[in-house]
Amino acid sequence: MTLPSTYPDSNCSLARALEVIGERWTLLIVRDAFYGVSRFGDLATQLGIPRAVLTNRLKLLVREGVLTRDDDGAGSVEYRLADKGIALWPIVRAMMAWGDAYYSPAGAKRALRHDVDGGPLDHEGRCQVCGSVAPVPEIRMEPGPGFDAAADSAPDPVSARLNLPRRLLEPLAPARTRQTGEPGEPHGTRDTRAAQ
Predict the structure, then answer these.
(1) What is the DSSP letter of 7?
(2) Higher-pLDDT residue of 134, 4
(3) 85 vs 192, which has greater pLDDT?
(4) What secondary structure letter does DSSP report for 50?
(5) Cα(first)–Cα(last) distance of the chain, in Å?
């Protein structure tokens, strides 16, 4: 039996938010969009999500204005966070910190730094060097003390790039062959754009 995706309490903003971002996989899609994963095939590979589910979640996130869908007319489609999606960063950051605190005894899986001065960010996103709350485009993510490189003994190209220090929202665009399967994206499209 399928669970409903709506909540009967229309007077609760949390219930309404959960209708948009509360389904399984949705926050992981948003997280990966912050990490710069923007292509359908890359999201499917990185998350291990069924393609039909990914298609449905992406359509919902675009319809709700969390993501934008950019089609270059040549068959390449990319999904990027809209302002409404970027506003979810404090939630994503807080959930990552909660997961690190309770499920990563060796420390944070991914460390966050203010890219401007290299200062570590605290659990509220405040730089420990300059004292400012770092805006999302100025946040650098890198493997933290709890990161287990051995867990990805043969990472896919997307995971390998995500395991390197990089700014949030910086697009991943490795040259590769895509096997997409998303409606509107032909199978086996050759994508030879260099990493940006």
Answers:
(1) -
(2) 134
(3) 85
(4) -
(5) 44
Q: What SS3 class is residue 27?
A: helix
Q: Percent helix, strand, coil in the chain (nearest 5)?
A: 35, 15, 45
Q: Which residues contact 102 (CB under 8 A, 6 or more apart)?
A: none
- In the block, residue with structure tokens 């032909």: 186
Residue type, 104: S
Taking the C-alpha atoms of residue 165 and residue 177, their distance in angstroms, rounded to an integer, is 24
- Residue 80 CB contacts under 8 Å (≥ 6 apart), including other chains: 33, 38, 67, 68, 70, 169, 171
Q: Which residue has the higher pLDDT, 60 or 180?
A: 60
- Give the whole-number percent of the chain exceeding pLDDT 70: 81
Q: Contact, 101 vs 107, CB < 8 A?
A: no
Q: What is the pTM of this model?
A: 0.82
For the beta sheet containing 110-114, the strands, ordered from the edge strand earlier in sequence to the opposite edge, are 110-114, 139-143, 166-167
Q: Are the C-beta atoms of 64 and 84 separated by less than 8 Å?
A: yes
